[in-house]
Structure formats: C-alpha cells, structure tokens
C-alpha cells in the first residue's frame, strides 16, 4: 500500500467500526470531504478514497449533491469472509471497468481489439456452426475433465513446446482464471503464504485475497522473477506455491530467460514449493521459448493456458496441465463446484485449432502486435515517456510516469474524459511510495489521438 492508500484504509476502518458498534446509525450523514480532511489531518483526495472504499463495500451510499450516508449494513468484526470479499472487490475494480465497456478510449485494456482476434478465423467457424456442424452438439453430461479431442490436440501442442503430457493429465477449464480458482480452492487455506510476481496479474491477487491467503510479492526484472528475492521470501514465509507468468508478462511485457528459469526451478527444489506457470500468450510465443514446465516436465510445475487473449474473451476455454494426482484433485473440485465446463464451446475451440487457417491467424495477429508496438513506442517517445522494455512480447508496455505524477490520480482524471487507464499500483503487491508510478498500456490503443492530447496536457509534454 502507498502511504495515501494506507491512510484511506485506516479512515475507512474507523468508520466501519463506528457503524458496526452502532455509533453511526442508518441514514447518518458522514462528515463532508473538507471537514473529514481536517478531522483526520489528511488531504481531501485521501478522504475521497476512503469514502469510495466504503461505498464499494456497501457501508455508505453517495447522494448526489448531498454527501455520503450510512446504509445501515452492519457486519460483525469477525466476518472474515466479508472482509476478504471487500478486499478482493477493491482489487478487481479495474476488471469490472474492462468488462462493462463504459469508456470510449481503452488505453488500459487488457485484451486485444475484437477485430484482431474475432474478425477472421473465428467468425467463419461460428457461421458453419450456426448452419449445423455435424457432430458438434451432443446432449449429454460428459466427463468433467473436458472434451477428449481438444485435450488430445493440446497434448500435441504442448509436445511442440517440449512439455510431455498425456491428455489424461490435461483438465479443461472456463479460462485461466477458473484454473487459478480451482487450484486456490483445492490447495490453499486462509492464512497460507503465497508468492506471486510483483508487478503481476491483479485478478489473481483478488482471488488470493478472497481465499484469505497472505500475498508476498516477488520482484520481477527484465529477465523474470528475481531469484534472490524469491529464495529469501520463500524461505522466510514457508510458502508452498509461487504463481508466475513466464512469457509476455502482464503487465511488463517481459519474458523469462533460460538461465533465470533454471535458477527458479533450483530454488523451488531446494525449498520445496510448487510453481503455477501462466502461459496466457502461449500460442503467440515461439515453441522454443523458456518455459518452466518444459524444463521441469510437470514435476512441481503446474502449467495453465487459455484462448481468451488469442481467439476471443467470450470463448471461456482454458486448461491446466499437471501431474496425475494434481489433475485428479482439480477434476474433483471442478465437478463439485460447477459440475462441468461447456462441451459446446470446447468443441468450437477444437474445430478452430484443427483448421488449417489457425496458424495463419496467429501469424497475422503477431504481425499486428509488432506493428502496433513500433508505432506505440514512437508515439510515447514524442510524449517523453519511456517503456520499461521496448522489445516486449505481447500486448503490454510498462511505462514509468514522470516524477510527482500519481498513477491513481492520473487514472481518475482520464476517466472523467472517458479514457480508461490501468494504473501500475494495482499490479503491485507492496507499493513503495518512494518509487515512481507506472501505467500498463495496451499497444493497440496508444496511438489514439485523444490519449496523446490527454498526456500532453497532463504530463506537460
């Protein structure tokens, strides 16, 4: 947490305590922003942040032109699930804004433009399906492990990446986030220490918070997770899991080097923890790229993939490849929680993957990404902004803001102009207020004229 975030949370916690103890009754008007800032000896922006958190958690409601009022909801202090849910919702706010599409300009978008992925290979298949694709739909419950022909295709794909895995050791899921959810439900308990990339994948942070896990951020540099930081924190915490994204890292665009991969696996062996490797952009990356699962052969690495970033965010299909025992436990958890994933959608993805046009689609998509990267970096240089890495993999640029610019405040000002930004602080576990702020930018949207005008005005470029 930054200093301001910490103060905002302290103010919110004090107000929650007053509500739970009955000091602040339903309908009570909270202090005005100015009065609260004076009473708590903080800035008005900090009070706004505290009140926003109370609104998100359901304790107060804003009334236009009249201030903030207590809703009457009282939660007991020992309502651990409610607290964890509120923390998770706070983290997932950025995700909600992406899903609801309420912004005109989407510079902070985590996904590619729909026309990049859905406008070619996918639409032709959906037309064929709509006209009656023979054998696509079968009206029966199937095995919760997922559609066998798709698992067989994935087994061959992973073999190209030097990951030897039998189809029976691949579980189909409703995307990568569902895969993470199954792993967390099965193997983590409240209070467990968990290691993650920092900066890292913020929806994962929210899931871990909801489970009551104790998040420990592992520093990431241009070659991947810092081995010394990983070893020190794993040993001190006793964590049993480390979640990491090796290639086309979200949000920095960095990719793991082979030497760094060996270091990480050596540390995992020495300190006996499992690694969950997220390969969300696997189909866009070379088969020979450094993957922990290829070096480890799924002994202590659990490999997670998805098609959301490559085919369509609406096709909720992902997968987990792991040892037989690990997959067996996840199959049971999947069956108990959602019974099964969609056999229909899994058949659609299988049909697309086995069509000769899929590799052409990947080549075309990679070309679009490379062109957008070159153009985006050129535009950022004109604005005086420098990406952390220029030769990135995937959709993202991690851009440092000028000294004195706060990413959250900048994001709020952008939102008033219907520009969606992704502030770097939501991707960090432990924010260091002494460090400069960052933004995660999607290369597909950087050249938008409205964004350039906004940054010129706000950053003095």
Automatic annotation (TrEMBL):
InterPro entries: Aminotransferase_I/II_large (IPR004839), HTH_trans_reg/aminotransferase (IPR051446), PyrdxlP-dep_Trfase (IPR015424), PyrdxlP-dep_Trfase_major (IPR015421), PyrdxlP-dep_Trfase_small (IPR015422), Tscrpt_reg_HTH_GntR (IPR000524), WH-like_DNA-bd_sf (IPR036388), WH_DNA-bd_sf (IPR036390). SUPFAM superfamilies: PLP-dependent transferases, Winged helix' DNA-binding domain. GO terms for molecular function: DNA binding; DNA-binding transcription factor activity; pyridoxal phosphate binding. SMART domains: HTH_GNTR. Keywords: DNA-binding, Pyridoxal phosphate, Transcription, Transcription regulation. The keyword Cell cycle does not apply. Residues 5-73 form the HTH gntR-type domain. Pfam families: Aminotran_1_2, GntR. CDD domains: AAT_like, WHTH_GntR. In the C-terminal section; belongs to the class-I pyridoxal-phosphate-dependent aminotransferase family. This is Transcriptional regulator, GntR family. It comes from Roseibium suaedae.
